[in-house]
């Protein structure tokens, strides 16, 4: 039975129509399904029905599920509006707000939701810390991350694998590989995420030998690497400019029965570009096409900077063609496509190309907005700075 059918049956059930005698179980179950299947339209219908019945602001459990439903569907604005109406939010609602804000890239808002509960009777759980640490990674705010680490210790969550993994990831991505390793070594139990995060941290600071030692140690302890672990290590070799090492690992990965996918190729291409090995990046791209692996927008994002490195407007235009014909398939209203093309054409006296695309596709570059609380009202704050704007103006 679909969500709309369930909603119709609930609305037609006599004992649910009475405002004074409403059964929560069917409604809660329906919201749970909307959350699971990201059914935003159905969730909005449930919310509208609750508003009509006058129950949307009275029942904490339903409000929390509404927050979760909107957050899981990516409707951060609606989630925020519901969250603000909750007098005493529970851990479920808070975790969803922190997670949704961080996932959408609103790291400051994620931290605001976290910090707003510090002085309340709210009790954090392990998922709260796992999520908020990702926000500090997004902001590269090491000091705040350390403060949260202290809270983790005080509340006894450092032994939890999920929280410890988030700490390793946070320290690694902030460049504090020593702190990351100390957390890693103290872990009583480690999973594939723990090992991969630590290996990735070493690769990020160009300590490939240490990463490889850890990689082999992981296997000795009986844990086999997954695709992502291989990709991290291969990308590390490529970033360092060690094409032989990268291809050797790629061959080893294949021999062990793992087929390199598009993520693997993209990781190698990005690694070569970061290591300023544009020639190797393009050679790898050609090999990828020969093998029938179709590029995506991530591939293109990795290759465009390589065109700039070798000042090849011809190759840039070829990549441009991929975006138009093969990658986005006419969906050039995606901001990412324009951002990459605009950045490539900037300074090459061909900005008219961007104007032409915009006119042909009737596309618009929308500014990004974030929701913050000010005088108990939800207001939109433009976060795109003029000097960082990816303009679509004619040159």
From TrEMBL:
One Pfam family recorded for the sequence: PPR_2
Domain of life assignment: Eukaryota
InterPro entries, A to Z: PPR_At4g14850-like_plant, PPR_rpt, TPR-like_helical_dom_sf
Keywords: Repeat
GO MF, one annotated term: RNA binding
UniProt key word Hydrolase: no
GO biological process, any: RNA modification
Renumbered ranges of PPR repeats: 191-225, 226-260, 261-295
NCBIfam families named among the record's database cross-references: PPR
Protein name (record): Pentatricopeptide repeat-containing protein
Species whose genome carries this gene: Salix koriyanagi
């Amino acid at each position: 039975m679909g969500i709309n059918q369930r909603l119709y049956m609930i609305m037609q059930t006599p004992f649910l129509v009475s405002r004074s005698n409403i059964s929560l179980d069917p409604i809660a179950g329906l919201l749970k399904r909307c959350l699971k299947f990201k059914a935003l339209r159905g969730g909005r219908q449930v919310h509208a029905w609750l508003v009509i019945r006058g129950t949307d602001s009275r029942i904490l459990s339903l409000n929390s599920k509404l927050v979760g439903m909107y957050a899981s569907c990516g409707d951060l604005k609606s989630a925020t509006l519901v969250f603000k109406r909750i007098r005493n939010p529970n851990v479920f609602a808070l975790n969803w707000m922190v997670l949704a804000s961080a996932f959408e890239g609103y790291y400051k808002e994620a931290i605001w939701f976290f910090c707003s509960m510090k002085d309340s009777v709210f009790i954090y759980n392990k998922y709260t810390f796992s999520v908020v640490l990702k926000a500090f990674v997004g902001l590269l705010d090491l000091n705040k991350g350390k403060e949260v680490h202290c809270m983790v210790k005080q509340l006894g969550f450092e032994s939890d694998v999920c929280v410890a993994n988030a700490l390793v990831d946070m320290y690694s991505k902030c460049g504090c590989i020593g702190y990351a390793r100390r957390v890693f070594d103290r872990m009583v139990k480690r999973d594939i995420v723990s090992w991969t995060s630590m290996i990735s941290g070493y690769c990020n600071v160009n300590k490939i030998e240490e990463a490889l030692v850890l990689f082999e140690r992981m296997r000795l302890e009986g844990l086999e690497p997954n695709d992502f672990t291989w990709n991290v290590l291969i990308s590390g070799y490529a970033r360092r400019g060690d094409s032989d090492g990268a291809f050797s690992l790629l061959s080893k990965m294949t021999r062990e029965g793992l087929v390199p996918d598009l993520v693997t190729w993209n990781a190698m291409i990005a690694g070569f570009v970061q290591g300023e090995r544009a020639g190797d990046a393009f050679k790898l791209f050609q090999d990828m096409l020969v093998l029938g692996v179709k590029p995506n927008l991530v591939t293109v994002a990795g290759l465009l900077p390589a065109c700039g490195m070798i000042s090849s407007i011809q190759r840039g235009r070829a990549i441009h063609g991929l975006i138009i014909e093969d990658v986005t398939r006419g969906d050039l209203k995606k901001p990412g496509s324009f951002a990459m093309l605009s950045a490539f054409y900037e300074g090459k006296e061909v900005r008219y190309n961007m104007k032409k695309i915009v006119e042909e596709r009737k596309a618009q570059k929308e500014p990004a907005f974030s929701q913050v609380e000010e005088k108990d009202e939800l207001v939109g704050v433009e976060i795109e700075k003029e000097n960082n704007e990816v303009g679509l103006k004619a040159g």
